[in-house]
Write a structure and sequence with these properties.
Length: 453
Amino acid sequence: MKKVHFIAIGGAAMHNLAIDLHNNGYLVTGSDDEIYEPSRSLLAACGLLPAEIGWFPEKISEDLDCVILGMHARVDNPELLKAQELGVKIYSYPEFIYQNSQNKQRVVIAGSHGKTTITSMVLHVLKFHNRKFDYLVGARIEGFETMAKLSDAPVIVIEGDEYLSSPIDRRPKFLHYHPHVALISGIAWDHINVYPQFDEYVHQFELLAQDLPKSGSLIYDETDSLVNTLGQKEYADIQKYAYKAHPAVVRNGKTFLQLPDKKELAIEVFGEHNLKNLNGARLILSQIGIEDEQFYEAIASFKGAAKRLELVGQNDETVFYRDFAHAPSKVEATTKALKGQYPNRHLVACLELHTFSSLNKNFLKEYAHKLDGADTAVVYFSPKTLEHKKMPALSVEEVKANFANSNLEVFTDNQSLKTFLLSKRWRGSNLLMMSSGTFDRLDFKELSSQILS
């Protein structure tokens, strides 16, 4: 029985990988100084939730096969230092994934936006057709128990993150995977704390394309100018496939794909960005043995990944969606998508500034006009989040100026935001809540019941 210890086991990818290894017969232990839901409940259900919160060097011993180090840990983490002292093998999770997939066909989906949805679409279609595959994805998907799986399958589909691999490995995660097939969905500056220069950020995606082997495949969004420029470059002996939004029509709040045989296919997702995601997924699947006819048969039942334009509630005159959007390009695309799906309804779009980049005064200008697609634009941020991240205070006036929207509403406590939303007339209006956080644990179910009642 292999013994593996996770430092920062509560992370989104980390806890899922831990559960999968546990299910495969590994002896798994782990530590963390904070573990939130759903990680906490999922780890507890498998008996993997640490008995105590914190770091415990005594958990590290020479009989461990390896330690898997999460990005949440710091370079001076006492368990990491103990592992280094004992000479225990240390992997970041992308390194570990690669070590266990060297004999597989590796598919990596990358990009500043869209990668989670495209990966989810690919997994949905493969599962629909009973194909054998491994995967790593950043959101929960209907029909999948975990977000990670390693087995003896011949192919692995990986959501490729450009963020750092671990505290002691400053390379982007996706450069560890060495894909045979790579997709780049879009490039828009993100992770300013890691890539303070935009050109440096863009260069990481170029490195991914350059890493493709001979006979590898690069799939890219030709409507994104930066991605298209990257895709047009010369790479030795690889195949390149450009894509754009799949032809579609919207009728009565429902999107229909226009197929080559002049037929139409109703789908559950919507928005131009999702029509591009869908076409990208189709091209990936064509590289791993799924024909277009099989793709269309399966994609009709794809309902989306968790928190990606996820329906919270609805009645005949109002819909309430939540979305993980936080980067400027994602905010703009999601807002336009919901307005485009219901053009005759008033759209209230709320964005929480929660990430390091979004709360950085030097980055805020990237949000200029990104909420202009909404009829009522709202921004929320918590001074406590700024304090927790040890960032300078941010004023309401600074936020309004950088969003360049004269009608922007800004709130700094969630109860005031809730009061504002409940004061609106919701008949004939829709609500969109966007954040990688929780609006300071605002109860969406309660809010939905009050708005839709």
